Amino acid sequence: MKQKICDYTGFDYKSVYWEQADRRYEDLCDRHSLSALLRKIPTPPEHILDAGCGFGRLFDVYSGYGKTFFLLDYALNLLEQFKKDQNNHTFGLKKVALLNGNFYEIPIGPSKLELVISVRTLHHIDDPNAFFKEVNRILKLHSYFILEIPNKRHLLQIWRFLTRKTKENPFSKKPLYLNDTFINYDPGYIFELLKRNGLTPIRRLNTSFFRIGFLKRFFSPATLAKLDRLFQICFSFLNLAPSIYVLCENRGIAQSN
Fold first, then answer.
1. Is the domain 13-250 a CATH 3.30.70.100 member?
2. Per-residue pLDDT for the chain (257 aa), expressed as one digit of tens each?
3. Euclidean distance between the first and the last CA atom of the chain, given in angstroms as a whole number
4. What share of the chain is helix, strand, coil (3-state, %, to 5)?
5. Are 145 and 199 in contact (CB under 8 A)?
6. What angle do the packed helices 24-38 and 221-235 form, to 10 degrees?
7. Among 52, 47, 135, which residue's Cα sits nearest to residue 100?
8. How far is residue 199's CA from residue 139's CA, in Å, rounded to a whole number?
9. With a threshold of 0.85, does the pTM exceed it?
């Protein structure tokens, strides 16, 4: 299978997608969820990969946990944006390596890392099994993987299906292709693929419950983010939010793929 690569080269992802579209609420949700799962890792990781780092939006969230950081992205302009934004930042004893590449051929040797993070990238991956196999390869035994899953089985999609506004069944395991490189997944299907590749889910958090236009017009990002944290505590077990964060442990039980 020849995998498709989503290429943001030449696209001002930071300005257009995050700033002009005012996704402050989503950014706060990502930061809280990632921080919460990082705190669940018992031993602080030393070597961390951000797979699909973009312009390094979440670097300040995880940079306090490691000593060496690998930031991987296919778009060179996004890596350059990170360098520009961090120009006056002092890393001290920390090392940062920028890697230009894709998810299916990660330029890191086997069993080198204690943590891989991948946020808002799975919806660009049409072969998640191949990606998870790479994550298993580069992680040390009993190390960790934090993944954000774009959930096709969220409440709004279920409502659209029940009211016949869409024919796409949110309860099937078939990936939902919004276009060639924007895909939503059934969380159960993703959990199965993770386990198949030795990555055992041990924690999960639902987030972005209020990713609805009219709510974002009437309430501040901070207010919605606070409500989101309450819903996260109460309803994460349902897997009905647009984004699902999962913390996995590499337990070395990968089956042949």
1. no
2. 678 888 899 999 999 999 999 999 999 999 999 999 999 999 999 999 999 999 999 999 999 999 999 999 999 999 999 998 887 665 666 799 999 999 999 999 999 999 999 999 999 999 999 999 999 999 999 999 999 999 999 999 999 999 999 999 999 999 999 887 899 999 999 999 999 999 999 999 999 999 988 999 999 999 999 999 999 999 999 999 999 999 999 998 644 44
3. 13
4. 35, 25, 40
5. yes
6. 40
7. 52
8. 10
9. yes
Tokens 């501040």 belong to which residue? Answer: 220
- For residue 229 the two structure tokens come to 């944290």
Domain ranges of the chain: 13-250
Question: What 3-state class would DSSP assign to 92?
Answer: coil
Cα dihedral 175, 176, 180, 182, rounded to 10, equals -100
Q: How far apart are CA 136 and CA 205, in angstroms?
A: 22
CA angle 78, 114, 63 (to 5 degrees): 45
Map tokens 């647009």 to a residue: 242
